[in-house]
Structure formats: structure tokens, C-alpha cells
Amino acid sequence: MTVVLDSQCIWGDVMKQKMSILFSLLIIFVVPLCSEPWLATIDANLTLTQNVYSNNWAGSESGSISWAASMNSRAEKQLSSRLHNKNELRLAYGQTYNQDAETNEWSDANTSTDLIDFESIVRLTLGAFVDPYASGRIETQFVDETDPDNDRWINPVLFTESIGAAKVFLKDDVRELTSRFGVAVRQNVNRDVLDTLTLLRKTQTTNDAGLIFYTDFTTPIAEERLTYTSKLSVFKAFYSSESSTREGLPNEDYWKHPDINWENTLVACITSLVVVNLYVQLLYDKEIDTGVRFKETLGLGLTYKLP
């Protein structure tokens, strides 16, 4: 069942609770608990694509300008002999401008890429076949433009908390293969949703719970000038707060189908500053669409890595 809350008072309570979780994660992220330093990496890049045609160009082509900026950062540390913490932050934003073929006027910017993704994982390194873990994840975007009358910053927000078992199959300076399997609960918070009956804006919160599976894989190719990264997540819900509201509807069981997100990134380093980046994403969420959604981004741009 969807819970409709007052956007001024209840949203504040929800955010206080979630911000307390985030604050705890950030404390783990920044507080040095032992003499070993944090192993931190930052990979940022900027790509730009431009098409320009003269006024007498024969054809229906039109000019366009698109840009995209992204940053992938990681900080991990063996906090003690039996406690390991890894934090990952991914940011991406891009826009596209199109030129009218007849008037030559440029359109307003359309968002092509928008992502904020932060996850913190605490793993007990007991030396067993698998390690117990607990994680918290926040997924959102910079600007929500789905409502033409109200652009909402940092909305909607998906919180995921999970506990379970993790296995590190391979890990060295340049390669990594890890998997996690556990129980997860998720909360989706959507602010300032317009009620078409009362014309008032409310905050909507939905919840679900189930099993979750993660696999992360990174490996260099071709003498480390080519790097492949793959991230796979599968979530199978066994409870949804919206199940009772969909009884008797064609989509009443859609929430029971697994949600799949498979991201693949291939980065080719032309020089220390110039890279070619190929990003392919496959999404399946039957509540949004009954088919598999596909996204591909290919760009040539500048990059910066630390260290």
C-alpha cells in the first residue's frame, strides 16, 4: 500500500532517519581507525560531441551538442584485522542541445545522463569461505524533470539496506571479482508529487523487501590500456507495500519479478589524459516496462585519475 505523507513535516522525519544512516556511513568513511591509510581512487572524465551543418547543407540533418561528465571514486580500508570497509561514489550528468533544421534555433538543454550513487559496505574478514557483510546504498539523480511544473532536486531517492554473505574470488592491484548475497529492504521516497484531485503536493513513500545479489568485476585488457568493469545487481522482492492497491489489476504481480541492473564499462586510454569510454547498461524492471531497457554511451574525452 502506498503511504501518502505530508511533504513538510513527515518528509523531515524521513530524511532525519535516512540522514542518520548516511551520517553513520560517512563516519566510517572518514574516521581513520588504524594506522593503515585509506586506499582511494578517483576517475573523472568529460566528453563532448558536436555536429554543425552549413545553411546550404542538402539533407535533413541538424546540429547538436552534447556533453557528459562523470566521476567514479572509491575509498577502502582494513579498519582492523577483522573489519573491512569499502565506499563507492558514482556521479554522472550530461546534457544535449539540438538545432532546428529549418530555423537554426537551438532547443533548451535535455538531460541525457543523471546519476548519484553512493554505497558503503562493511565486511567481517574472518578468514572463512564467505564473510558476513552489511551495506547501505543511496541512489538518486541531480534533477527530476518528470513534472513540467516543478523541477525537483535530488529526487526520487531509493534507499537500500542489506545484510548477508560476501565472497572475494579475486583481488589485487588491478583485478577484482567479488559477489554478495543477502536480505535487503528498500524505501523509495518521491517528494512533492502532485495530487490531481486536491492539487496539493505530497511525499510518497513505498517499501519492499526481498533477496539481493551483487557481482562486481574489474580487469585490465591489452597491457592495462584497456579496462573492463562490470556491475550486476538482482533484487527479488517478497514483500511490497503496493501489493494490496494492485489487486485485480493486470500488473498486480509485476512487483514479484526480479529487478536486474547490469552495467558494463570499457575504457581505452589513448594517452594519460585522453580516453575512449563505452558504457552499456541493461535494465529490467517489469513495474516500469515489460521489456528489457538498453542504454549505450560512446564518447571520446578527457580523464583524470587519482592516484
Describe the structure.
The protein has one helix at about 10-30; strands at about 5, 40-50, 65-80, 85-100, 110-125, 130-140, 145, 150-155, 155-170, 175-195, 200-220, 225-240, 260-270, 275-285, 295-305. Strands 2-3-4-5-6-9-10-11-12-13-14-15 form a twelve-stranded antiparallel beta barrel. The chain has a two-stranded antiparallel sheet with strand order 7-8. The N and C termini lie far apart (about 50 Å). The longest helix has 21 residues, at about 10-30. A hairpin with a 6-residue loop joins strand 5 and strand 6 (about 130-140). It is mainly beta and about 300 residues long. Mean pLDDT is about 85; it is low at about 1-10 and about 25-35. The relative contact order is 0.13. It comes from candidate division WOR_3 bacterium SM23_60. Keywords: Membrane, Transmembrane, Transmembrane helix.
